[in-house]
Amino acid sequence: MRCAMDFGLQGKNALVIGGTKGLGRATCELFAQEGTNVIAVSRHGDECAALAADLRDRYGIRTAGIACDLSGSGRSDVVREALAAFDTLDILVNAAGIWPQAYVLDMEEEAFRHTIEVNLISPFVLCRDFARYLVDQKRPGKIVNVVSQAAFTGSTTGHAHYAASKGGLVSFTVSLARELAPHGVNVNAVAPGIMDTPMIHEVLKTCREYYCQRIPLGRVAEPEEVAYSILFLCSNKADYLTGITLDATGGMLMR
């Protein structure tokens, strides 16, 4: 039987971007276990609806799903739609992202732009809209942006555009934390290393040993292991933390 610590998340309302797969889905699951109401955002409406129904049935929480292509203008409606569903919001987690592969010498400009669009501009828009709501309503809140160890080490495997987008998100997180601290809003980041998620599952089938050799703990993370870091930063146990990046990399980052 799981002995739960009280994270102060009971009855809170969380908006999880990229909530139906990988780290986002694991985060939704942990929120639900803590009694947090969850709105999951994904490109696929059927996946959002299925996850919302599953969490509601198993945990008795309020749930909703929002379908949105984060590379398009619909992302500007997400916070408004979430408020229409729940009336209030307390937490935003930006866990969506893409991980295309191309070495710089072979990379098309459009591929670089699209990666920045999804991995950096979309979190900016969602953070901005969520922060406007919190400041306008004089509500405290928590924002967690999912970055990457690649933001600090770069990429050697053809993901320079991904690393650049995540590096930008780290800097944006720090700046937003400085701006929102006077308003009682905590803004932090979590930097995963290598996780066994749908985004890299096919790569791990052939390159798992290569990646494990780069991880001091010697193994790839399960999404839930990283999701606990997000849960902590959203909890009342992290009320004095803002502007940090929590490394959840199995030792790939040691700073």
UniProtKB/TrEMBL annotation:
Q: Under the GO molecular function aspect, what terms does this record hold? A: 3-oxoacyl-[acyl-carrier-protein] reductase (NADPH) activity; quinone binding
Q: What's its top-level EC category? A: oxidoreductase
Keyword Transport applies: no
Q: Which GO terms describe its biological process?
A: bile acid metabolic process; fatty acid biosynthetic process
Q: List the Pfam families hit by this protein, alphabetically.
A: adh_short_C2
This enzyme's EC code(s): 1.1.1.100
Identify the keywords attached in UniProt to this record, alphabetized. Answer: Oxidoreductase
Q: Give the record's family classification.
A: Belongs to the short-chain dehydrogenases/reductases (SDR) family.
Name-wise, this protein is: 3-oxoacyl-[acyl-carrier-protein] reductase
Q: Which gene encodes it?
A: fabG2
